[in-house]
Give the backbone structure.
Amino acid sequence: MERILVIGCSGQIGSELTLELRRIYGNENVFATDIKQAATDIVESGPFDILDVLDYSNLVHFVVRNKITQVYNLAAVLSGNAEKIPQKAWEINMKALMNTLELARETDAKKLFWPSSIAVFGPTTPRYNTPQLTVMEPNTVYGISKLAGERWGEYYHKRYGVDYRSLRYPGLISYKTEAGGGTTDYAVEIYYEAIRNGSYECFLSENTALPMMFMSDAIKATIDLMEAAPENLSLRSSYNVGGMSFTPKEVAAAIRKHMPSFEITYKPDFRQAIADSWPASIDDSVARKDWGLNDQHKLDSMTELMLNEIRLKLA
Ligand code: NAD
Ligand code: AKB
């Protein structure tokens, strides 16, 4: 029986991934942790503890005491926030990863999921249909930490047999928990503001295309990757996953199909330069071939869901 530790269960991904893992593996086998309080549904459906991934000794004790076999490590400072505190963000992002790699080397928690990002690519990378293997010269501290992290993950797999697995998530869109300080956050905020105010001031320019994925597709992809037979995984760096690609102007048009009076204005800030350095769309054919990536949502179906769910949530 797998016993699973989720680090970062209170964040945008963790708040949904934890519940799905509990549905599959049983509530009592999924240990939710974070440095901040979790949502009521997580606290009430299974074990929840405050745990700092940067505190290695506590982490090891927790894992041994609870006989953990798998770890999903979601703790990180995202791209927009990282640019405000570059040295600190590097320290946090790398230590959070290295502690769980060491944990996997030293304990029975041998299987580790750690998310990478489209931020591993940079301005010299081919921008459209970005290949799995290509030029990678990220120019953000977040992207540099994700690229270094991928290299360390592959190294621990080859050198120490750690069962490290990873996805290069695009921008993730969800209604349960608001996004945590990234460049793709506009694509979550826009739906909230549409319902709250009928308008949105976007921090990216109207034609900035970025790859995105709806949260339920991302969670399915994550668990499918973790459940894939090891012999099917040709990559131990991180898999491209693309989902869909759209611009702020296109999301606004999709929202107007349901709310004709919705208005958008554009006031690009420092995150524009980050978005301009990232791919506009992603080639994820290796993930499709190796372990059957099969995402469902496109812009229109996701927009309808987002508007309906946020309307209910804010009512
Ligand atoms: P988030 O900021 O919403 O959540 C991260 C969680 O980690 C927070 O609840 C935070 O309290 C927790 N945390 C921070 N420091 C911690 C520590 N020292 N110990 C324990 N917990 C700590 O982020 P998210 O959007 O859920 O992203 C999770 C992971 O996925 C990150 O590695 C991020 O880089 C990656 N990712 C996210 C996206 C996206 O669009 N959401 C895209 C690409 C990659
Ligand atoms: C961010 O914008 O920082 C994240 C990501 C794509 O890694 N959403």
Notes: The chain is about 45% helix and 15% strand. Residues 86-106 form the longest helix (21 residues). The two ends are 40 Å apart (CA to CA). The domain at 4-171+213-240 is CATH 3.40.50.720 (Rossmann fold).
